[in-house]
């Protein structure tokens, strides 16, 4: 079994919809991420290229106003599920030869601040 672990971070602003409190106002965070992919097989000697994961996350989130980038309420829970979807899509893309990749267990943990995290996996 192979286990990829990627620690990554991005800075972004958001505001929570239908929320009573300060977080309904525009505010920012330095978000920290941990992405874990477990699988039994490699494709071209890798699980997935680290830079591809970072690029996909940064294109959607880094230095962005999250509410304008997504069509959901940008809670930490929903952001972790969205990033899971980005990583899953990258992992399961077919190779140039049309081969499918082995099944993988993917887990995404998002820290909105120190000591406050949410984890999403299927």
What is the strand and helix layout of this fold?
Elements lengths: L1 E13 L12 E13 L10 H12 L2 E2 L10 H17 L11 E10 L2 E6 L1
Helix pairs in contact: 1-2
Description of the molecule:
With 122 residues, the chain is of the alpha+beta class. Helix content is 24%, strand content 36%. It has one domain: Tetrahydropterin Synthase, Chain A (2-Layer Sandwich), CATH 3.30.479.10. The protein has two helices and five strands. It has a five-stranded mixed beta sheet. α1 crosses α2 (76-92). The longest helix is centred in the last third of the chain and has 17 residues, at 76-92. It starts with a strand and ends with a strand.
At a glance:
The protein contains two helices and five strands, in the order ββαβαββ.
Number of domains: 1
SSE string, helices as H and strands as E: EEHEHEE
What's the architecture, going by CATH? Answer: 2-Layer Sandwich
| Number of helices in the DSSP assignment | 2
Kindly list the characteristics that best describe this protein.
122 residues, alpha+beta, Tetrahydropterin Synthase, Chain A, 5-stranded mixed beta sheet
